[in-house]
Specification:
Elements (H helix, E strand, L loop, with lengths): L4 E7 L6 H9 L7 E6 L6 H6 L6 E4 L5 H11 L4 E4 L5 E2 L3 H10 L5 E10 L2 E4 L14 H6 L8 E4 H7 L10 H12 L2 E12 L9 H16 L5 H24 L3 H13 L4
Parallel strand pairs: 1-2, 1-4, 2-3, 6-9
Antiparallel strand pairs: 4-8, 5-9, 6-7, 6-8
Helix pairs in contact: 6-7, 8-9, 9-10
């Protein structure tokens, strides 16, 4: 018997985009058994759009709290053995679930990921995105320490993984996905499907445009990693990334004519080599 699949789609003020996202899920050659849309307190017409699909989705509305909380709300009501996340402005190719479930069914890996294309309002931007060094099977943890090369809509994850490592950190507004991928990769092997089976939009109003918040959240994740990563080579990567984040925040603060935060980050940049 095929494993059941739950798809979790968090959304916030995406009335003009979410129908296309849902259509890409409905068009899958391997049907999703449960499609959960968590509306993170939208104030536009997102709820009305979702109501058009009421007989095909599970719609849950929560008070606005951010994507990590919305994704966790979906995890609380998931029923599948395999879990996929899709942002409400992104799309899947028709064989995404078919190819990804086949990969996990043939493997003992805890999760699978694939390559992806990027697009904007004008069309395709880049047909593939992952360089060869990030097309890996097995242990991803060391590579993920370098950078977050996974895109949320490219993964399929076994339910058991969440029971081991937990869900998304609700205190992180940005980079909560990198935090979870690191915890997954530390405990479970990965499977890779070398096809761009997802299309990731790069021109919508995502939180990742808040560069300062991104670097600040990355620093919090790196601080957590220092608590349990002992291998010296991996600790060197953590120190290097910590230094890079403080350098970026120094430049942002200095450019904004905020000398005190700039000096703070400059000092932390210098001392990060001793962490």
């Amino acid at each position: 018997m095929d494993s059941k699949i739950s798809v979790i789609i968090p959304t916030y003020n995406r009335a003009r985009l979410i129908a296309a996202t849902l259509d890409s899920v409905f068009a899958q050659t391997r049907r999703a058994d449960q499609i959960i849309v968590v509306d993170d307190g939208s104030t536009d017409g997102t709820a009305r759009v979702c109501a058009q699909f009421a007989n095909r989705i599970t719609y849950q509305r929560i008070a606005h709290a951010g994507a990590s909380v919305a994704r966790n709300a979906g995890l609380e009501i998931m029923q599948g053995e395999f879990i996929a996340f899709l942002d409400s402005d992104d799309l899947w190719e028709a064989r995404f679930l078919e190819r990804m479930t086949a990969a996990l069914d043939a493997s003992d890996a805890g999760f699978a990921y694939c390559d992806y294309a990027t697009f904007d309002a004008r069309g395709l931007v880049q047909s593939v995105n992952l360089p060869p060094r990030y097309k890996l099977r097995g242990i991803l943890f060391a590579r993920l320490l370098e950078t977050d090369f996974l895109s949320t809509g490219t993964l399929l994850i076994r339910r058991d993984c969440f029971e081991r490592v937990g869900g998304f950190d609700p205190s992180l507004e940005i980079a909560h996905d990198w935090d979870l991928w690191l915890r997954l990769a530390r405990e479970f092997d990965a499977e890779y499907v070398d096809k761009p089976l997802a299309r990731i939009r790069i021109d919508s109003d995502g939180l990742t445009r808040d560069t300062a918040l991104l670097y600040s959240n990355n620093l919090r994740i790196l601080a957590k990693l220092r608590g349990y990563v002992n291998a010296e080579e991996q600790r060197r990567v953590i120190r290097r990334n910590t230094r890079a984040c403080h350098r970026a925040l120094f430049n942002l603060s200095w450019g904004a004519r905020r000398p005190l935060p700039a000096l703070k980050h400059f000092g932390q940049m210098l001392t990060s080599q001793f962490l």
